[in-house]
Write a structure and sequence with these properties.
Chain A: It comes from Daucus carota subsp. sativus. Chain A: This is Aldehyde dehydrogenase 1. The complex is a heterodimer of chains A (about 500) and B (about 500). By secondary structure, chain A is of the alpha/beta class. Chain A is about 35% helix and about 20% strand. In chain A, helix 2 (about 80-95) packs antiparallel against helix 4 (about 110-130) and helix 9 (about 280-290) crosses helix 10. Chain B is an alpha/beta fold. Classes of the chains: A alpha/beta (about 500), B alpha/beta (about 500).
């Protein structure tokens, strides 16, 4: 059973921004409607937020379109966009505590991590793209006849950005940063579970000098505001991170409306492969961290742990030991490793999967039930002797539930790791160079971590293979989502060579 | 009215009519009947007669082809070969295409109404060159080493995406085959090609050549059949990793939707256009007229990047229109085997009727009919090269893609005005800019929202030059090194580093 924290809470921030941010102003929704955002520690309402719907999206798109077609942002020298983005980054740093606190009460995220790691990570992503803006290169081409030709990479236009609730700050900047750097304008629709930090970022964007209409934030629900974005006739691109089911709807709506370009970052059932020669302590730490970080609410969670038979029992023993020290409690408490799940929906869904695991005959090593009387807390849960056909081994649970499976040979591990429709990430724990090279080449996933896990970095792209989606976040690759390639060709006359 | 070719569309001029050697589906290295035994007719647009029956693939045939392609990808040699070996085989394929250029050009002529001599001298050699370009790219597919912010070694690999479905159109059956299959093969993918039902013949011949070249069984499969059946089976297949489509905007929508509803396969679309050619007062006058004519009439107007809206600055407008009328009189419409023909028949009856109805719209909407305006001859789907002048932006002929030999000429005053009007379309495929002034060329090329801008030239395609759509003309690029991206996945690999002098 996981250790309890002593339940200390830090001061909760005043909620300063609850309205839609359109064309540089905070405004009520056209309908006047609002919705509640809930604190998952207590199940209480934190605040009422303006609820945007189609009409509000239309107004935001008009503002973004005017800002793109006629405003300064796409026409500035890129280094000036970079300068404004750097100022934006500075302002976020100055307000890091308040922002981390908002994500804590909105999503149950750990306050200490938010303040020391996650918000700074969002900031360094923003700074990375601020520095990339003036390095967007095209190519000069080798024509086979007497022509001068080159490609330009131009901003795609108005982007619709639909972000999830698991990393509200990081996700905001993973998408907004390359879009801003590219010279696009945008409408961000944060998840209805976590609207608070997005509205604060909108306020800071204005203070930083981002012109009105360039960055709009419309809070609201997926089936209304989100759908209005994916089916909008005047949005040039939609970028979505979330569930596979909703990803399908977004892509369909894009097809049926104006064939806007789409990128999707969806679910995963990522494997962590631990070989016999792995260091037991390191491997167990990676497994726990990979599976339980952010209470398991992470798309790249290492939810399937494949352990080679020689080391299996030692690993299981180590996992059981270490899980006991995984402190569950109030996310403001700095000793907590594990806060509440984001909302009641997710809470029930995860508990449902845990019941399945028990019924399907997997062995419950640790955890398996709720924690405390109030809030959406679930104990870090580990099943062993899991078989590949079990639901807990196939479906994405998106909660603190690990499945441990035994394997014999490297070929078998590769086959079983790849036997999923997902393909987001994978981890390999081994000291052997050849095993590392073979397995990293063989797993069909967008990011492979060898002797590490969730090793994100701004210059390192990641994204899905197969039904985990397409398009890449981070790295110079992410700029591609917000740029279009234009070829320009002119005949050459009197040229010494081609 | 244009001069009739001296062949007068009689059978006398139909030289080089090839024997039709391949009429079955090509799956896993074999020519096979469709499972249902069904066939469909392919029509000769010069006469409206049936050329031959071709096997009609339906969902079950696509399933078989996907099984073969999946096995070839997951377990076969093709993706595992060094790029240099894929290169050798692709070079061999290019050689075989060159050796059979006449027969291939003849097939496209009778199947698609394409000019035989252009096919033999331009289209087919260009297809071969496209295979050579991608053959040379196969061993140059680079990833990056990355600058991590902590002590990690990281790099990206670009890996083949897997099994690809190509749905190709009827207007350039050979070039489209090469443009899609070339990069996909170079990348190490395996594929199913569904050529347009109007033009299945050359695709099946290419299938035969791929086998001769040494491409392993299952790597290239060709399933002939109809869009709503075989094509839809591809876009909604649960085991195809990517679909690439060139064709109409309406069908592009269906494909993207199917991809979303099935397995979220990646999609690239190259759709319609209503591309502007903008001619400034200082243009090289004769060249401008020639480019305008070619822009609308090349390949009987059946080209997605047709320069169907010709904007002429007012200073030269009257002179221009007069010269157009003069030059179009010598534009030869006739049998595609006749070496003097510049324009063969439209591909099929449906297109033929659609174009004629747009011409009627143009007349009714009040545009001035400068030339043409009706069918040519009594048999076959020939249409006179047709030019409307005094066209207004809101006319249907100025807004909708006609995909036939119909030009709309519009007058403009200033550069800012023409930029605005040129961009006032949901399409964004190409644009032509004719001027001798450097600054106008730079301003206008930066301002038009389209994927290919041709300055003082038109249709200036080349292997190293990517092209594709902005806006509703689609997304994804064909040709150039960019053309490979569609068939590759980016994979990042990261490992901690210890005891390193620097990051």
């Amino acid at each position: 059973m996981a250790a309890e924290s002593n339940g200390k809470s830090t001061k909760i921030p005043e909620i300063k921004f609850t309205k839609l941010f359109i064309n540089g102003n905070f405004v009520d929704s056209v309908s006047g409607k609002t919705f509640e955002t809930i604190d998952p520690r207590t199940e209480q309402v934190i605040a009422r937020i303006a609820e945007g719907d189609k009409e509000d999206i239309d107004i935001a798109v008009k503002a973004a379109r005017a800002a793109f077609d006629h405003g300064p942002w796409p026409r500035l020298p890129a280094c000036e966009r970079g300068r404004i983005m750097m100022k934006f980054a500075d302002l976020i740093e100055e307000n890091v505590e308040e922002l981390a606190a908002l994500d804590t009460i909105d999503a149950g995220k750990l306050f200490a991590f938010g303040k020391a790691l996650e918000i700074p990570s969002a900031v360094s992503t923003l700074r990375y793209y601020a520095g990339a803006a003036d390095k967007v290169h095209g190519n000069t081409l080798k024509m086979s006849r007497e022509f001068q030709a080159y490609t330009l990479r131009e901003p795609i236009g108005v982007a619709g950005i639909i972000i999830p609730w698991n990393f509200p700050s990081i996700m905001f900047f993973y998408k907004v940063s390359p879009a801003l750097a590219a010279g696009c304008t945008m409408i961000v629709k944060p998840a209805e579970q976590t609207p608070l930090s997005a509205l604060y970022f909108a306020h800071l964007a204005k203070l930083a000098g981002i012109p009105d209409g360039v960055l709009n934030v419309v809070t609201g629900f997926g089936p209304t505001a989100g759908a209005a974005i994916s089916s909008h006739m005047d949005i040039d691109k939609v970028d979505f991170t979330g569930s596979t089911e909703v990803g399908r709807l977004v892509m369909q709506a894009a097809a049926l409306s104006n064939l806007k370009s789409v990128s999707l970052e969806l679910g995963g059932k990522s494997p962590l492969l631990i070989f016999d020669d792995a260091d037991v302590d390191t491997a167990a730490d990676l497994a726990l961290f990979g599976g339980f970080y952010n209470k398991g609410e992470i798309c790249v969670a290492s939810s399937r742990i494949f352990v080679q038979e020689g080391i299996h029992d030692k690993i299981v023993e180590k996992l059981s030991e270490k899980a006991k020290n995984w402190v569950i409690g109030d996310p403001f408490d700095p000793s907590t490793r594990h806060g509440p799940q984001v909302d009641q929906n997710q809470f029930k869904k995860i508990l449902g999967y845990i019941e399945h695991g028990k019924r399907e005959g997997a062995h419950l090593l640790t955890g398996g039930k709720t924690h405390g009387e109030k809030g959406y807390y679930i104990e870090p849960t580990i099943f062993t002797n899991v078989e590949d056909h079990m639901m807990i081994a196939k479906d994405e649970i998106f909660g603190p539930v690990l499945s441990v499976m035994k394997f014999s040979t490297i070929e078998e591990a590769i086959t079983r790791a790849n036997a999923t429709r997902y393909g987001l990430a994978a981890g390999i724990v081994t000291k052997d160079l050849n095993v590392a090279n073979t397995v990293s080449r063989s797993i069909r996933a967008g990011v492979i971590w060898i002797n590490c896990y969730t090793a994100f970095s701004p210059d390192c792209p990641y994204g899905g293979y197969k039904m985990s989606g397409f398009g890449r976040e981070l790295g110079m690759e992410a700029m591609d989502k917000y740029l279009q390639v234009k070829a320009v060709v002119t005949p050459l006359v009197n040229s010494p060579w081609l | 009215m244009s001069i009739e070719s001296n062949g007068k569309l009689t059978h006398k001029k139909m030289k080089f009519v090839p024997e039709i050697k391949f009429t079955k589906l090509f799956i896993n290295g074999q020519f096979v009947d469709s499972i249902s035994g069904k066939t469909f007719e392919t029509i000769d647009p010069r006469t409206g007669d049936v050329i031959t029956e071709v096997a009609q693939g339906i969902k079950e045939d696509v399933d078989l082809a996907v099984e073969a392609a999946r096995d070839a990808f997951d377990n076969g040699p093709w993706p595992r070969l060094p790029g240099t070996q894929r290169r050798s085989i692709l070079m061999k394929l290019a050689d075989l295409i060159d050796e059979n250029a006449e027969e291939l050009a003849a097939l496209d002529a009778i199947d698609g109404g394409k000019l035989f001599h252009d096919g033999k001298n331009i289209d087919i050699p260009s297809a071969a060159e496209t295979f050579r370009y991608y053959a040379g790219a196969a061993d140059k597919i680079h990833g990056d080493t990355l600058k991590m912010s902590r002590e990690f070694q990281a790099y990206t690999l670009r890996e083949p995406i897997g099994v690809v479905g190509h749905i190709t159109p009827w207007n350039f059956p050979s070039m489209m085959f090469a443009m899609k299959v070339g990069p996909a093969l170079a990348a190490g993918c395996t594929m199913i090609v569904k050529p347009a039902e109007q033009t299945p013949l050359s695709a099946l011949y290419y299938a035969h050549l791929t086998k001769l070249a040494g491409i392993p069984d299952g790597v290239v499969n060709v399933v002939t059949g109809y869009g709503p059946i075989a094509g839809a089976a591809i876009s909604s297949h649960m085991d195809i990793d990517k679909v690439s489509f060139t064709g109409s905007t309406e069908v592009g929508r269906l494909i993207m939707k199917d991809a979303a509803v099935s397995n979220l396969k990646q999609v690239s679309l190259e759709l319609g256009g209503k591309s502007p050619i903008i001619i400034f007062d200082d243009a090289d006058f004769d060249k401008a007229v020639d480019l305008a004519l070619i822009g609308s009439l090349y390949n009987k107007g059946e080209i997605c990047v047709a320069g169907s809206r010709v904007f002429v600055q007012e200073g030269i407008y009257d002179k221009f229109v007069k010269k157009l009328e003069e030059k179009v009189r010598s534009w030869v419409v006739g049998d595609p085997f006749d070496a003097d023909s510049q324009q063969g028949p439209q591909v099929e009856k449906k297109q033929f009727e659609k174009i004629l109805s747009y011409i009627e719209h143009g007349k009714r909407e009040g545009a001035t009919l400068l030339a043409g305006g009706k069918r040519f001859g009594e048999k076959g789907y020939y249409i006179e090269p047709t030019i409307f002048t005094d066209v207004k932006d809101d006319m249907i002929i100025a807004k909708e893609e006609i995909f036939g030999p119909v030009m709309s000429v519009l007058k403009f005053k200033t550069m800012d005005e023409v930029i605005r009007r040129a961009n006032a379309t949901k399409y964004g495929l190409a644009a032509g800019v004719i001027t001798e002034n450097l600054n106008i060329a730079n301003t206008v090329s930066r301002s038009i929202r389209a994927g290919a801008i041709w300055i003082n030239c038109y249709f200036a395609f080349d292997r190293d030059s990517p092209y594709g759509g902005y806006k509703m003309s689609g997304f994804g690029r064909d040709m150039g090194m960019d053309g490979l991206d569609k068939y590759l996945h980016v994979k990042s690999v990261a490992t901690p580093i210890y005891n390193t002098p620097w990051l």
